[in-house]
Amino acid sequence: MTEYTSETDRGNRNAFTNPFNEEGAPEIEKIIDAVVGNLKDNVQVEERPEGGRVFSGSLTEMQVPALVNAVSSYMMKQVINDKHRMQANVKLPDLESDIFVKKVSGRAVENEAGLLEHVTGEVVLSGKDKSGVQHDITLNAVFKLTDVGTTKVTKPDLSNAKVEKVNLYSGFTSKYVGTYKNNIVIEKDGQFVKIGERTLEITSVESGRVTGKFYETVKPEYADQYHEPYNFTFEYDPKDSTHGPHQFFFSYTNPQGEQEYGQIHPQSSGKIYLELNIEVLDEHSYRSNIDYNTFDSEFIRVFEE
């Protein structure tokens, strides 16, 4: 069970909006109508005996609107020539000029309920590479819709279920109570050397409120090669945040006796992420001033053998 901190959080979670009601939607719709409005005469419609219709059509390069060709040229340069988006085994020519839609054809089958259950399409794009050699690239797409209306949803019986409350923002539950550690490591004489340990103890979790302790232990012979170790207790409750929406920090005292802010949240199974020395910039942003070259933020659960 997810525990929401307010009705506002509950109402906005997983909300969907109608894109046609967004600002600028009417203008975009007019542009689309201008592009495709004169294409309806190129689409053939056939009534199916069992209900529904079949739509089919084909356009040559002379029938494709200029705006479609302009957009196609831009998209081809962005997609095909961007090697970071292509797999290594995909071999396509680098089209650089005179890119246009040479042919468009497609067929769509509508069932008796008015749903498009099978769509096939083919687009042939033509263009020249940097050497002026002409290339044609054919793109094929197939869409199938099956088993419509066959999904059955059965509400589970939760009358005897064991309920575990999870706070919406902290994500912590009682299963995170325990000890977590990582190593303090420095580089010396070209080697990595462990000089101590960091320990994070989660002592209790109740309704999203987390209490715990953090401390560092350094071997005496390396004390002069590391800053004064941290050692503090903390209490973390997102409900008590005073730093603006979705900024949830706890306060602690650093080795110099100064108050600083930290943040904590669960990672994958058996791991917790801890940030220290956080500077709140404004109501919507912050940064961590911790030196990540010497501080490891990932803590791993310690299990007794």
Structure description:
The chain contains 3 helices and 16 strands. With 305 residues, it is mainly β. It folds into 2 domains: 42-144, no CATH class; 166-301, no CATH class. Strands 8, 9, 10, 11, 12, 13, 14, 15 and 16 form a 9-stranded antiparallel beta sheet that branches. Strands 2-3-4-5-6 form a 5-stranded antiparallel beta sheet, with helices on one face. Strands 1-7 form a two-stranded parallel sheet. The longest helix has 14 residues, at 66-79. It is elongated and about 85 Å long.
Can you give keywords for this protein?
305 residues, mainly beta, nine-stranded antiparallel beta sheet, five-stranded antiparallel beta sheet, 16 strands, elongated
Cα-to-Cα separation, first versus last residue: 32 Å
Structural class: mainly beta
Low-confidence stretches: none
Instruction: Supply the number of helical segments.
Output: 3
